[in-house]
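During the no-cost extension, the postdoctoral fellow (Dr. R.K.) reprocessed legacy sequence entries with the updated structure-token encoder. One reprocessed record is reproduced below for audit purposes.
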Amino acid sequence: MHCQIIFEHPLNEKMRTWLRMEFLLQQLEAQLPLDSHASALHFFRNIGDLLDVFERGEIRTEILKELERQQRKLQEWAQVPGVDPERITQLRHQLKENSTMLMSAPRPGQVLREDRIIGLVRQRLSIPGGCCSFDLPTLHIWLAQSQPTRDAQVDLWLASLSSIKKPLFLLLDLIRNAAPLRKQTSLNGFYQDNAEGADLLRLRLEKESLLYPQVSGHKSRFAIRFLPLDSEHGSVPARFDFDLACC
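Re-encoded structure tokens follow.
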């Protein structure tokens, strides 16, 4: 049985930021519940990274613009014969609902920035070992509370992110499904093509190949070079098949 792996590469700064946000939001729930210093520090470090990402650019404005753009695209699709009108209507309703929620929500991450525990931990994360119990007794006593008490606090923190998480995940799902994966062939480990109007490249490879893509490019043109995981002894076949989607 063949196992496959998907690689994704953003073609603009907006998509690069969104993929990082998605990664960090997923990581926040990766080690729940917070029942040890290790799981807690994993959580707080990702919170800090996410807040740093929120500081760059107009996150909410960009997402609102994309929600509107996707609504217009669905309106055009509704005129195409053979499409499912019920599904189109459902998606347009979801986009509009998420847009309304995001417009009425506080600034992304505002609740987290104002939280005392998060602020104290965030200050110490840049110091090697700076979250030891003697350095950060506040975290030590917070972790000594009952599990239900900590869970309730974490739920409040995560709930404050729902207004940005829901529209972001919906948009990324629509973008990823905007183009099908198609078979392509690289010659001597190299492939290039145009990607006019695309935001994201998606590549699907066989895991057994032990190759990974190194992508360079921007919104109109891109190049892919396949490299072996074992840089000393690995090799790249003269012709290598892979699946590609320009979304």
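The radius of gyration is 22 Å. The longest helix spans residues 85-104. The remaining legacy entries will be reprocessed before the final report is submitted.
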